[in-house]
Amino acid sequence: MAKYSALGQYLSTLNADSVTISFSEIERLIESTLPASAYNHPAYWSNERSGTHTWAHVWQAAGWRSENLDIARQSITFRRDQQSAEAQLAGLEPRKKETIYDLLEILGISTDDWKGNKANPKYCYNWSFGSVIEHYAVCLWHGNMSVEDGQIVCKNNLRRLALDLESISQDISAPSTERNRTAAQAGRASAVDDAIRSSFNHRLPVSVIVVKGIQRGIEIAGGGSSQAEFRSLDSVKWHVHTYDDDTGIFQLVRGIVPLDTLSNLPSGSLDVEEDSGPPDALQQRAIKIRRGQKKFRDNLLSAYGKTCAVTGCKIEDILEAAHIRPHAEKPNYRTANGLLLRADIHTLFDLGLLAVDLQKKICLAPALLKSEYKDYQGKELRQPTKVSDMPDFDAIQLRYTAFREKHGPK
Predict the structure, then answer these.
(1) Mean of the per-residue pLDDT values for the chain?
(2) How many CB atoms lie within 10 A of CB 369?
(3) Who contacts 17 (Cβ-Cβ below 8 Å, separation ≥6)?
(4) What is the number of alpha carbons within 13 Å of residue 59 lying toward its C-beta?
(5) CA atoms within 13 A of residue 308's CA, in its CB half-sphere
(6) How far, in Å, CA of 306 to CA of 299, rounded?
(7) H helices then E strands: how many in the chain?
(8) pLDDT tens per residue, range 318-373
(9) Which of 15, 43, 81, 178 has the fewest CB atoms in 10 Å of its CB?
(10) Within 13 Å and on the Cβ side, how many CA atoms surround 250?
(11) pLDDT in tens, 278-294
């Protein structure tokens, strides 16, 4: 089930080579109870690569191995696995068919338009999802991935595929069912091309949903659709290393950030020029995205009693889920990585104009000390009552260190 992907996402955020996690912590991560076999049978935690134990695929695909299981203390240690790229690629092969809807929720990509229908054909048959603001997720066939120079890569040309499919859809001699099918496929291929082009131009990481099944070639595209028999989320981000504007040929590389990502980032690159639609619809979508991933926000609303951690504001409609470790670095939807903040405070926090010091006091940038925000200077940060929900103060300290380097000591 897609809920287990949350463990892979968590492991991918760690800088350490090993981590020991209690069963209860894992249950909080996956937002579900582990089965009885996890508490009674060591085989549940084995590093199985074949057979029915699909749960092990989650941590192995993220590049980790389980070890030092302690059933009595209900804990398990995971250690980073220094395996070859070929072995990593083999481990990426999906072994369960997780729903697109559930995977997008894990990634924080809005599914509001699906109206709660996880199998809504208007959306779940698409090959790409997201936006510049949310970042993109694309479906890639495992069979199209390869290893080059010790790296897992995917080279393709979805623009060419879209044009070929569009040509078939306009062939008046073809049956109408084939024309309609390929017209839809052309749109999906074009959307993937747009997502990859935009991610390349904005230097954004890409989430990959790995697919395995019956993949039809262009020569028989009109005769039927490809069929995904298995799909799972890769917890490691991919990056677009090359994109040819003239041809549409691209190369995605797993886990390797291009060297020019920071030095060549285009000015104004976060302007979302490709967003379109009625102004009211765009505004509502922007609000939903800014509020944060639904489960993440709901957890923070509960943890903080629907109260802003800085201002004490209790107007739920303007309370937002703020990431302490920025979402753009590595997605982390644990309650401890969040603060519930009023919309304007969230913006100040993200801009580095407001921070929390080592005594858990609010610190404002000098420019705000003579503004309407001045009363918050030195105020103590509100915290949840449950220890497990307490904010990650190691991450807050990193924010505060960056704040001091920019604005000087308080």
Answers:
(1) 81
(2) 10
(3) 79, 80
(4) 26
(5) 22
(6) 10
(7) 13, 15
(8) 898 888 887 545 556 678 889 999 988 998 998 889 999 888 899 999 989 988 89
(9) 15
(10) 28
(11) 445 444 444 444 444 67
